[in-house]
Amino acid sequence: xxxxxxxxxxxxxxxxxxxxxxxxxxxxxxxxxxxxxxxxxxxxxxxxxxxxxxxxxxxxxxxxxxxxxxxxxxxxxxxxxxxxxxxx
Length: 88
What we know:
The protein has helices spanning about 1-5, 10-15, 60-70, 75-85. The protein has about 90 residues and is mainly alpha-helical. The protein is globular, with a radius of gyration of 16 Å.
């Protein structure tokens, strides 16, 4: 789905309803040789990077995640807030 978004083939609104959003195009351990895809993001002091599964993304909106990460609270508290939101 992200590849379709990045290439402009679908919109963010279409992505929210995309029926094949859980299709994995690459996985470690499936093939003998793995082609590693890298991307580069420029980070600045104060930026936060969130690594999460589809248990959060798609359940909690990007805007809601961004609002929580912008709060000036300890990271364990922010993490628990996101977990609680996903469970709700």
